[in-house]
Fold this sequence. Notes:
The protein is α/β, with parallel strands linked by helices. The chain contains 19 helices and 14 strands. Strands 3-2-1-4-5-6 form a six-stranded parallel beta sheet, sandwiched between helices. The chain has a six-stranded parallel beta sheet with strand order 11-10-9-12-13-14. Helix 2 crosses helix 4, helix 6 packs parallel to helix 7 and helix 12 packs antiparallel against helix 13. It is elongated. The protein starts with a helix and ends with a helix. The N terminus is likely disordered.
Amino acid sequence: MLARQNHSKMKALQQPAEQQRMRVAVFGVGYVGLVQAAVLAEMGHQVTCVDVDAAKIERLKEGIIPIFEPGLAPMVQTNHQAGRLHFTTDVAQGVSFAELLFIAVGTPPDEDGSADLQHVLAVAGAIGRLMQGGKVVVNKSTVPVGTAHRVHQHIGGILAERGVSLPLEVVSNPEFLKEGAAVADCLRPDRIIIGTDSTHAMALLEELYAPFNRNHDRIIQMDARSAELTKYAANAMLATKISFMNEMAGLAEKLGADIEAVRKGIGADPRIGYHFIYPGCGYGGSCFPKDVKALIHTASEIGCEAPLLRSVERVNDRQKHRLIERLHQHFGSDLAGRTFALWGLAFKPNTDDMREAPSRVLMEAIWAAGGKVQAFDPQAMNEAQHLYGLRDDLTLCGTQEAALKGADALLICTEWQQFRAPDFELIQRTLKQAVIFDGRNLYDPARLRQRGFTYYAIGRGDSLEQGK
């Protein structure tokens, strides 16, 4: 710790050095890897991206981006054309290309909720077999505490089998990107966590991240285990705030209070703040559900109880069924012969990601009850088609207005901007019944009631009364 403090003091006294172009290899061009690679290339670094999916690599070479993320496509295309961003399936090329090797592959949940490290260890194994000189391996993937040590042991074991001794350091450098704002987050990070005790690795990463660290020092150095836990703890805290507000919304409904007024009242306290205290129909995506499960599993493995985390998960699972419960209260348990307009398929705005999306729980429950869905989303239509294929009970519509035609009610699962100020007269004319089930509290209940709508929201006591 003393060495770390002295390092920070010395750094504060030094004048900023001229930025050096660095060579970086990124293994895995999924969400995290592609964004990180593109932004590093944007800063002038030479970046090679490696992935086993040959079709994906070829599409990237052609400028076709596999995910929707604002600002990502032009950045990838520009830097690829400028020769700073390369794509390959050749693992050996990636290992030999750079001293800094980023592992950014997926860590999907296993059956027991633990993070599946097979892809991380597969990359580590390839590095161990192919490296010919010293390397700094950087874990960018979200991984359980102790993974940096495990990766180091795995690579070291392969080097021993080869009968070679090469300098090797493994660093934890978790990402804190928000889907829908990942490029902006990567360009202007609020913190850069670097988990290492190596002065050599730390110096390399400080040089790499220097362009993002000019206004003030965003780098926080700690040991690798603390860095790994920081990532999980951050996501678990955010998930906890959401589940807390959803639990309060349930109380508000029963007590006749308005959770939106409550939100403003508690958000004014600077110790609480307004971020992540919006009630809704549950959180989804690739991070919160997976990471909460993984942290619960980690706690269980070491004999620690995690009652709060288990409650966070339980509240969120329950919240995803809230709209279908309201639907059954209004229309009955049998939805045969009924069609519902659904606005929003992605788990949040500005992404096409439907992993763990509340919309999926809602649609599948409607189908199970015999109903049909006419859905629209500005970006996630292709993903919905990929997930569900051709179904008689699912129609993907070209516009949000088209989804309303012949529908018994409107359901809202995602707070896209274009849904916030719709043509209510058109909605009222087009729907069979003027009924809205709003999972994101986009509208004012009193105004909709004045317009003649029956409006069900989350935790709005006045909207509950009109449904009686």
